[in-house]
Amino acid sequence: MRRLLVLLFRTSLTTVFITALFGCSRIDHKQSALDPKGLVSQNQYDVFMLSVWITIFLFCAVGGCLLFVLWKYRAKSKEEAMEIPPQSHGNSKIETSLILVSAVILVILAIPTLQGVVLMNRVPDANDEQTLKKLNLDRSQIEGAITVNVTGKRFFWIFEYPQFGIVTANELVFPASKAVRINLRTEDVIHSFWVPKLAGKMDLMPGQENFMWFIADQEKILSGKPTTEAMPSVFDGKMRQTVFAKQKFSDEFEPVGGLFYGQCAEYCGNSHAYMSFRALAQTDEDFDSWVKRFQNSQNPNLQPSAYNPEKQYKKGSIVTFADKSLGDQVQREFRSTKKITKGEAPNISGKSWAKAHSDDYEIGKQLFSSLQCVQCHAVNRTGIGAKGPNLTLYGLRTSLAAGWMRNDEESLSTWLKNSNEVKFGNLMWNGEGVDDTHPLRQLENDDEKVNQLIAYLLGQI
Ligand SMILES: [Cu+2]
Question: Is 286 part of any domain?
């Protein structure tokens, strides 16, 4: 029995040691709450550190007393060891003061904690100059706050921007200089929204709306680097290029200051661990350009319409027109290379119109409908109505499958061929109405179609 206990003790010690050794990594790890880069997360970090210091103090005080007593009253000789020391019981002075000290410590902890809870819950009032001064915030940072309606779904995120009338998924683009108000809802079970370096965590509860906000610390994002390097622009694909150039997917540290990693922090099913997301900080101008780009892509009135022989077209107009060379169904997009007079129909061999996209893109676009991807995915401003993530301007995204993979040809191909293998239990492969007869389950051995779909998806820029 004793040997067994000793053995158990030794193995558990070794386990603790090994876990401590490998579990520790640098404090600025991708998803580290100990590396705050925003006002709210800094506040939470400060409260945490306060409790750490108090705990360290208590540990030293109690441990020090214990060591002192052990040393001072040790048996100095054999005879002394045989003696029974004088017996006593209780000391009301010491006990009362210990209770008082504990109460004071709790109050010291409670005040900043409650202040933090209030701070996290809502954006400060722009007219409350005193608070703004205390938080070192500028009025414009609050007045220009943007709102994002976040909806959690198994196992991805929808981001709606009600002020701008646009929708995206899994990558929350925001202006670094402004407060970001987050309204949290869920469509199914409980999730939790957490971007450790900016703020966190807050649950998304069925039938309820929760709130939080954050504001990034621009100086920390830039940390002495030029803006283009620390916060590459998203709207023209620079962010994607920079991230891919500087980072392997498995790297543990952020290659780019303005890229933040988020995670669902409440178990929600099979693929919960892969339900991550990203938040991308932008300069004001780059954010505006990104919004414009989305507004244009999601504005139904700005989408290319069918060629009309009764109309004249300006140079650079885009129309759709059947292209028989790609199959009976394909409506190709053509761009006019000069002013078009009435009745001058698109024709690839002519000089007046040019292909707007590659052949693969056009066939991929067609497949996107015929393989029923549209059953779940919107490429317009449809938000929570869609079963899958919104795929507007998908080619600008850095990540795939809710931040789980890098968004490039290779991962997309793996994903489209068998998404269940990469993200077990995901609701693309296992969703309602999807079985082995569904066209998306037939892609496994069809490289050609997969590549065409990829050309279409990544061509959306
Ligand atoms: Cu979750």
Answer: no
